[in-house]
Design a protein that fits this description.
By secondary structure, the protein is α/β, with parallel strands linked by helices. The protein is built from 8 helices and 7 strands; from the N terminus they run βαβαβαβαβααβααβ. Bound molecules: NADP nicotinamide-adenine-dinucleotide phosphate.
């Protein structure tokens, strides 16, 4: 089997990505940090697609935890390698900059940007040895355009966009592509405090997107079919920003 790791695969966009990768025949390692039951639900959906997987608990922002969890898996499976990595785990803690606390800044940067570093650094090694790999980073409209009240979140996602472009140039010769997908407003728990009606007029397609619509683009970038696409940011935002 071919192996894929999805961070934050327990809910929302991450769950849809896990299901898409299962459809593509991947064994999916479903990372979560707090909601084990939701991660188990994702695993059941993966199995419904006729594939298999496992859940793996770690906080992407905690370097020691990431290294321990992924390290144990790699030690137990010396003959296997993870050829698709989707860095999807993310949080937002919106606040105007002048009121922003250290925690609001550090935790968002730690999960969204630090998480990319902690996980990718470990997984890229196997891809380099095997001379094939796909890294897909879930970023955001907020990291491209900047959104008021989200200086922490916009900075974290813009950071991952920069890292995507830099890493793609480091590893391209080894058959590894590194791309980012930038969703606009997608219906998940992360946006449940937004009223779709208030935003509808701003979005050319006049609606929020679905997790499955994001997962389709991630699936393409995770597939062999995207072999000459690297260092790119693909927006999935209903035309909201280009
Ligand atoms: P969500 O429904 O809130 O789900 C977040 C996922 O990330 C959950 O699986 C959660 O795990 C996991 N997670 C959070 N912190 C983590 C940590 N420290 N370590 C490991 N996993 C962690 O969010 P979503 O809307 O699906 O968002 C997924 C990604 O899309 C994020 O990167 C987000 O920034 C990005 N995005 C979303 C939207 C949108 O409109 N929804 C727009 C643009 C970009 P637990 O279940 O264990 O808590």
């Amino acid at each position: 089997m071919k192996y894929a790791l999805v961070t934050g695969g327990s809910r929302g966009i991450g769950r849809a990505i896990c299901v898409k990768l299962a459809e593509m025949g991947y064994y999916v390692i479903i990372n979560y940090t707090s909601k084990k039951e939701e991660a188990e639900n994702t695993l059941a959906s993966v199995r419904e697609k006729g594939s298999d997987g496992e859940v793996m608990k770690f906080n992407v922002a905690d370097q020691a935890e990431v290294e321990a969890s992924i390290g144990v898996w790699l030690d137990k499976n010396p003959d296997k390698y993870i050829e698709v990595l989707v860095n999807n785990a993310g949080i937002r803690k919106d606040q105007l900059l002048m009121w922003m606390s250290n925690d609001e800044w550090n935790s968002v940067l730690g999960v969204n940007l630090g998480g990319f570093f902690n996980v990718t650094r470990l997984i890229i090694k196997g891809m380099l040895v095997k001379k094939y790999g796909r890294v897909v980073n879930v970023v955001s409209l907020s990291g491209l355009k900047g959104l008021p009240g989200q200086t922490n979140y916009s900075a974290s996602k813009a950071g991952v966009i920069g890292a995507t472009k830099a890493l793609s140039q480091e590893v391209g010769r080894r058959g590894i592509t590194v791309n980012a997908v930038a969703p606009g407003f997608i219906k998940t728990e992360m946006t449940e405090d937004f009223n779709e009606k208030d935003f509808k007029q701003l979005i050319p397609m006049a609606r929020f997107g679905t997790s499955e619509e994001v997962a389709e683009v991630v699936g393409f970038l995770a597939s062999e079919k995207s072999s000459y696409v690297t260092g790119q940011v693909i927006s999935v935002n209903g035309g909201l920003y280009s």
